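Is this the right way to post structure tokens for a design question? Let me know if I should format differently. Anyway, here goes:
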């Protein structure tokens, strides 16, 4: 923080007149007081006597007050009075002195006509004092007024006047101050121009020459900091060196010039890396501090700059005493500076940075917490318009990110990203410090990726850090840091996508940065460790023994170079442990295994109990013991140690959820070890419970839906595993609850956001309102969106100077669903702390799920590699267990493949409903009582489902109490899991070409549900004659799709049964907006159009309408609580995604989630000729139900409609009638 100086305060009016005594007696008139004051001032100048200065000020104060306004001496008295006050302010820093001086100078200027020769002098003094007040109080109006008065002073000063250079210099200094506040580069350029001119017209012998040299140096250094041109800094150093040489030892500005020269050398060190510059900087700044008295206003600045240099040397050399010195100096600086001083934020930031660095080195959490407090204070004290605000925001963001890494509190990380995003927005695109802020923001986004798993965050981090590296000259030492940060982010992306080009780029970058880093540099171990990790990854990818050996060597060297008390030591030991395990697997050397155990154990020992990395270290140690357990080198307590380590890792609440889950799964696996003589049933089920409880943290509500489904691809079957073990232990109720709460995670999250809050609103209306607001915001914020083009969205191109702001606000991006999710979690926790709401939105228990079986038994079938079972929920809330020993997960997969082979052969796995292809269309319906003679391979699939799954369940259900009338078929709702989701249980049966069939339709009416919770909605009976409003959408010729001519006929058929309440949108009327709006005003909707199932992106599955696609993601963002029935006369609306079998990611489930209580969908593509037959009979049955009143039974109506289709085309024409299914109530 360099300081400049104005010209001598004795410019212009003189105080050296009159008598020799400065004793103040009772005055007779203002003239005597004036003489006494001037004489006392002369005594001060001669001997430095502070009491003489005080006497001078008091005398002149009285003289100014007593002198009449019209007296010609009054302006001079006021001016002299102001000079004395200004001198004392510069001596002791008392702001009231400066305020009084400005008042005196202002009055003097107002009393002095422009033609008076002393007018420029008085304007100059007033301008300088106003600038000083701006420097101390920060009011922008002061510097504006200063510039105005100083410009007027120059205009009134003749070119040959000896004070002209000084006044030009003063105006330049004030323009520079305005630049420092506003960042307007034009002010700085003008300041340099003026100060260069002032210097050029000032003789070398002039006493102000050293001042002008120093001031121009300050301006050039500022331009270097703004534009990054090294020649500006070099010239500044030359000017300051000369200024220091010209300044006498006891000169009042000697310390300032020493400080400025030292600070510029520090900056050159940062740019070029020459340690000699840094050593010289410390020497100069130490001298500046020593010769400056503690009460000096400049002392805090000198102390903090010296502290910065010591901290820099610590960063280069690694000596902790340098960092301690830095903290000592900067603490003193903060203590000395006045509370409202404009430089206070800068001093707070510097001290906070040093404390954070000590935390990074020593690991004292109180250092980091204090750093955050100091840096938060700096941010609060600084307006967005201040040029240093981006620095403060970045520093605070870095500290908050570190606190997140230490505590695991995601709120800290979200705030860090928000602050750093704002900082990037505030700084101009061509600013030389822009790369630093881009890289820091990239680090924070990468950290959020590591915690939350959003690939979008990682891609943004890479783009930001690549831009940081590209913007930085090759000779800038900081470029190594930006490249290192980029390599870490690329490494993370490789781990996610396994793209080898990312890993090769990482290794290339890290090899270069490591080779350019001296061994004694504190950053060397980190760069070696990162390089070793990346080479290890390449070994795992390609299997090269050379890579494995190199990885071990690099990580060993990194560990050896890392001090024993360094906070990163445990992580590096853990990494080496993992690599040694791989070498043991490859080579079988027992010493590698023993070293891995030792390093893994030491890593755990070094980490504090609540450290987030402890879960990772414990997990690695558990794996180490597990490997040794199954090797020839096993020791007696390996299993015990492995169990303890994995269990502890799972329970480390500060650890990352994904790491804890992996440890939990490892623990579950170890519990099956044959050497365990006591069955670990209790421990096993407890472990499953803890793993399932981690799912919401991994599949986090703060991520968009696409990302949540991406996570579930890897973790979607955890509930099935847990349920299988619970069933084996006889815990059938627990198994059912786990299957309910551990599957269809995303739909459940959506439904919770729409939970009615009536009870909460009655007792806590504001809390209910807050929860409703954040829930609605989350629904919109977490909807799937396309990834934005980061190059235009995050940073302006490096080749676009002056583009200070990105095209789209980063702050808006950062204010994302993450923030809302954190607020939502806080609100839920608060509500659960209230009496009567302890179980608010907790996973439902059997007692709460029991009403799901009100219309008949619900059959949940758990598919797992170890066993297959059915759990039947039946009235009034009991659970029956039906083992399916002859069925298996593998058998279900084979049946699914057989079915899909049949459908592919018949072109029925197409995305589109097809009127151009119907293999039976030329044969027409069969005569009554006739069967087709062809054998359909689908019959084998349906027969296996009947024998192995459905018939055992039907046989047991017949023995259960029922609420159905004796003359009605019972209603069964199927809730299958795994590959069984894709198989038509509702059509299971034996269908011989000759002879009677055995099929489920003769025993029950079938429905499906993705969850039990979907069946808990209120059942609203229809009053007799209460006719629903129906919206029909018919799209016979959607642009870009095959024509489906029968859709208009469907619309006519629906209208024939409900003529007065049916509204039809056909062809161009069926737009996305019109359909969405119509769904909100109608009870039923019938969509006769193409349905498209997207396997690559399930949330983009859609209905093809006239002007575009009505996607599942659009439906997920809509809530229709009064909707009743949706008929999806389209293709594949109930198909789902085989990677997400437990999530029901299909359009039928989407309509349930939107609010429809019943949905008719299709499991595969349907024939265009079939839809009108089903439609006619279905609405005929529904019309009859409406006219009779009571509860509507869409499942019964569909049962009757498909029966007609079977009768017309034959039971063996499975692909025609089987795809129609009912979901919901």
């Amino acid at each position: 923080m360099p300081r400049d100086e104005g010209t001598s305060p004795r410019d212009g009016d003189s105080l050296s007149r009159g008598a020799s005594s400065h004793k103040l007696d009772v005055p007779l008139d203002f003239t005597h007081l004036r003489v006494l004051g001037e004489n006392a001032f002369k005594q001060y100048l001669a001997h430095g006597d502070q009491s003489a200065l005080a006497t001078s000020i008091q005398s002149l104060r009285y003289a100014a007050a007593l002198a009449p306004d019209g007296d010609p001496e009054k302006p001079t008295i006021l001016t002299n009075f102001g000079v004395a006050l200004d001198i004392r302010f510069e001596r002791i820093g008392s702001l009231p002195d400066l305020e009084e001086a400005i008042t005196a100078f202002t009055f003097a200027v107002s009393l002095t006509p422009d033609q008076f020769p002393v007018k420029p002098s008085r304007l100059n003094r007033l301008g300088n004092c106003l600038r000083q007040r701006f420097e101390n109080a920060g009011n922008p109006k002061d510097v504006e007024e200063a510039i105005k008065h100083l410009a007027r002073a120059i205009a009134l000063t003749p070119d040959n006047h000896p004070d002209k250079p000084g006044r030009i210099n003063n105006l330049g200094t004030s323009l520079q101050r305005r630049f420092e506040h506003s960042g307007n580069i034009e002010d700085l350029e003008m300041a340099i121009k003026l100060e260069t001119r002032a210097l050029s017209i000032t003789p070398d012998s002039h006493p102000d020459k050293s001042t002008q040299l120093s001031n121009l140096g300050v301006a050039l250094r500022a331009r270097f900091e703004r534009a990054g041109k090294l020649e500006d800094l070099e010239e500044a150093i030359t000017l300051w060196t000369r200024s220091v040489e010209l300044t006498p030892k006891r000169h009042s500005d000697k310390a300032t010039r020493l400080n400025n020269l030292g600070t510029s050398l520090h900056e050159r060190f940062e740019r070029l890396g020459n340690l000699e510059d840094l050593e010289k900087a410390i020497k100069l700044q130490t001298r500046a501090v020593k010769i400056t008295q503690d009460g000096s206003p400049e002392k805090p600045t000198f102390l903090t700059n010296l502290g910065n240099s010591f901290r820099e040397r610590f960063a280069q050399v690694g000596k902790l005493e340098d960092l301690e010195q830095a903290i000592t100096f900067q603490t003193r600086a903060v203590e000395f500076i006045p509370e409202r001083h404009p430089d206070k934020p800068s001093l707070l930031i510097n001290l906070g940075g040093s404390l954070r660095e000590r935390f990074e080195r020593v690991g004292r959490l109180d250092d980091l917490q204090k750093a955050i407090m100091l840096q938060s204070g700096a941010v609060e004290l600084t307006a967005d318009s201040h040029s240093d605000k981006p620095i403060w925001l970045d520093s605070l963001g870095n500290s908050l990110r570190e606190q997140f890494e230490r505590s695991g509190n995601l709120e800290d990380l979200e705030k860090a990203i928000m602050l750093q995003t704002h900082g990037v927005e505030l700084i101009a695109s061509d600013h030389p410090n822009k790369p630093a802020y881009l890289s820091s923001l990239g680090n924070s986004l990468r950290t959020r990726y590591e915690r939350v798993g959003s690939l979008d965050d990682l891609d943004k981090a890479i783009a930001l850090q690549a831009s940081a590296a590209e913007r930085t000259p090759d000779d800038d030492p900081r470029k190594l840091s930006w490249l290192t940060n980029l390599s870490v982010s690329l490494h993370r992306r490789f781990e996610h996508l396994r793209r080898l080009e990312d890993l090769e780029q990482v290794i290339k970058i890290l090899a270069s940065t490591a080779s350019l880093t001296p061994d004694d540099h504190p950053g060397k171990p980190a760069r070696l460790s990162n390089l070793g990790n990346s080479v290890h990854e390449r070994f795992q990818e390609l299997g090269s023994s050379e890579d494995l050996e190199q990885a071990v060597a690099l990580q060993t060297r990194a560990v050896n170079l890392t001090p024993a008390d360094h906070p990163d030591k445990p992580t590096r030991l853990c990494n080496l442990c993992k690599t040694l395990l791989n070498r043991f697997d490859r080579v079988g050397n027992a010493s590698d295994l023993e070293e891995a155990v030792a390093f893994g154990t030491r890593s755990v020992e070094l980490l504090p109990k609540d450290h987030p990395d402890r879960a990772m270290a414990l997990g690695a140690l558990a794996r180490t013991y597990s490997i040794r357990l199954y090797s020839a080198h096993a020791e007696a307590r390996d299993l015990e140690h492995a169990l303890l380590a994995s269990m502890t890792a799972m329970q480390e609440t500060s650890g990352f959820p994904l790491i804890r889950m992996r440890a939990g799964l490892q623990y579950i696996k170890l519990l099956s070890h044959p050497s365990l003589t006591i069955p670990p049933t209790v421990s096993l089920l407890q472990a499953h419970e803890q793993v399932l409880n981690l799912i919401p943290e991994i599949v986090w509500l703060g991520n968009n839906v696409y990302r949540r489904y991406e996570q579930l691809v890897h973790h979607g079957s955890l509930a099935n595993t847990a349920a299988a073990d619970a069933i084996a232990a006889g815990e059938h109720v627990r198994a059912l609850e786990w299957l309910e709460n551990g599957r269809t995670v995303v739909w459940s999250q959506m439904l919770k956001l729409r939970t009615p809050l009536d009870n909460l609103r009655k007792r806590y209306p504001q809390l209910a309102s807050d929860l409703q607001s954040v829930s609605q915001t989350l629904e919109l914020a977490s909807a799937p969106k396309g990834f934005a083009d980061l190059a235009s969205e995050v940073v302006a191109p490096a080749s676009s100077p002056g583009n200070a702001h990105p095209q789209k606000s980063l702050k808006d991006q950062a204010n994302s669903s993450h923030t809302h999710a954190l607020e939502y979690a806080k609100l839920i926790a608060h509500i659960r702390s209230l009496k009567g709401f302890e179980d608010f939105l907790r996973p439902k228990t059997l007692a709460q799920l029991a009403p799901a079986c009100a219309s008949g038994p619900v059959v949940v079938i758990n598919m797992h590699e170890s066993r297959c079972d059915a759990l039947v929920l039946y009235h009034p809330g009991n659970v029956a267990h039906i083992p399916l020993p002859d069925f298996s997960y593998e058998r279900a997969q084979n049946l699914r493949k057989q079915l899909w082979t049949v459908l592919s052969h018949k072109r029925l796995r197409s995305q589109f409903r097809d009127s151009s292809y119907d293999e039976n269309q030329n044969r027409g319906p069969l005569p009554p009582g006739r069967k087709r003679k062809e054998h359909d391979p689908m019959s084998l699939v349906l027969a296996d489902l009947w024998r192995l799954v459905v018939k055992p369940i039907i046989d047991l259900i017949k023995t259960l109490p029922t609420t159905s009338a004796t003359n009605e078929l019972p209603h069964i709702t199927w809730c299958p899991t795994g590959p069984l989701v894709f198989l038509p249980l509702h059509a299971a049966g034996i269908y011989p070409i000759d002879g009677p069939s055995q099929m489920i339709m003769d025993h029950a009416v079938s429905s499906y549900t993705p969850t039990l919770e979907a069946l808990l909605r209120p059942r609203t009976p229809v009053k007799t004659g209460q006719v629903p409003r129906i919206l029909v959408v018919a799209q016979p010729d959607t642009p870009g799709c095959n024509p489906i001519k029968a859709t208009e006929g469907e619309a006519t058929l629906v209208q024939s049964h409900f003529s007065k309440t049916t509204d039809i949108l056909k062809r161009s009327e069926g737009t996305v907006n019109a359909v969405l709006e119509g769904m909100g005003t109608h009870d039923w909707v019938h969509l006769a159009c193409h349905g498209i199932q997207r396997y690559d992106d399930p949330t983009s599955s859609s209905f093809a309408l006239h002007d575009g696609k009505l996607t599942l993601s659009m439906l997920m963002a809509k809530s229709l609580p009064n909707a009743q029935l949706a008929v999806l006369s389209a293709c594949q609306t109930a198909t789902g995604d085989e990677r997400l079998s437990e999530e029901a990611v299909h359009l039928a489930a989407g309509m349930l989630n939107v609010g429809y209580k019943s949905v008719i969908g299709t499991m595969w593509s349907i024939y265009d000729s079939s839809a009108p037959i089903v439609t006619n009979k279905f609405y005929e049955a529904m019309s009859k139900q409406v006219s009779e009143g009571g509860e509507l039974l869409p499942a019964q109506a569909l049962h009757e409609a498909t029966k007609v289709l079977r009768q017309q085309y034959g039971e063996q024409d499975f692909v025609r009638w089987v795809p129609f299914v009912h979901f919901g109530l």
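Format looks fine. Someone answered above. Worth noting: The longest helix spans residues 478-497. Residues 1-24, 784-815, 915-930 have pLDDT under 50 and may be disordered.
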